Amino acid sequence: MLMLLVGLAEQVSALNVFRYITFRTGGALITSALIVFMFGPAIIDSLRLRQGKGQPIRADGPQTHFKKAGTPTMGGLMMLVGIVGAVLLWGNLASPLVWVVMMVTLCFGAIGFYDDYLKVTKQSHMGFSGKARLAAEFVVAGVAAWVIMSVGNEPFSSSVTFPFVKDFVINLGIFFIPFGAFVMVGAGNAVNMTDGLDGLAIVPVMVAAASFGVIAYLAGNAVFADYLQIHFTPGTGELSVVLGAVIGAGLGFLWFNAPPAAIFMGDTGSLALGGLIGAVAVASKHEIVLAIIGGLFVVEIMSVIIQVAWFKLTGKRVFLMAPIHHHFEKLGWTESQVVIRFWIIAVILALIGLSTLKLR
Q1: CA–CA separation, 272 and 76 (whole Å)
Q2: Where are the transmembrane segments (predicted)?
Q3: N or C terminus of the chain: which is more exposed, having fewer CB within 10 Å?
């Protein structure tokens, strides 16, 4: 549809607007939000009917969480429907980067869906094997990293850039594939760990998506990239359309996920969205900046790693409960206090990350 409209632009000048990435990003945002608003209630009702008891609640979690029993999960499905629909309508489907990012998103979403399915059917927090899940994620991410490296310009396509430094890059060669895969898998699981309170994960995801929408657009434009003295990465501008769709779908989901949540995102959504942002970071050569913009996600997953490692070593815990948002709940913060304060942190980190575009 998009290519048809662009092709007709020579006859109808008004259709030239479809050539502009900014216009199509806005269109994708609105479209994905409308799709989620329209189909969200039906999806929620269907999932509630099929899941019965809904997502299992951790027995060792904060007592306030038990009132959420019966809330359905797999809400990521409604977001994926909105994102895919908007990208098919507004995205440039001739772009290999669009396809590879969507591949990561849908494959990670499928892995998360299977994990959610096992948890709901077994009424247990244990999905399928953690090792098997990570292995599947790394296979998908490895293929994606290889494609990103292959469609780029060598040797830059296999290089890593650094924020605040203009010319310093390290060419990883073939080792760029495991590095890129690690970024995507890490991002997916970090967002997954953050998804534990109503609205906690989705707003930082939208903040990160907006930030990387700006980065992808500027890095994919030779004029802007030269002015900002950042590395030009051809084709990444189209990823702004995908990220616009993420923001729109996130707004639609937040409508239903706002306390008290009518549905949880589940691994279906958190893995998919985290993998998507990780893939965009790899494609736009801003992998390290992702650790800044997504610093909240990094803290969340590191709190789990530290807790598990320290307990195995000493038999003691560093935090009252991990991930860290539960630690603050145990300290007496209300759920809304944790969520809103973490949102504020996410916005601050995003602004710091965006500052790397000019501070070089």
Answers
A1: 8
A2: 30-49, 69-90, 96-114, 134-152, 168-187, 199-219, 239-256, 263-282, 288-311, 338-357
A3: N
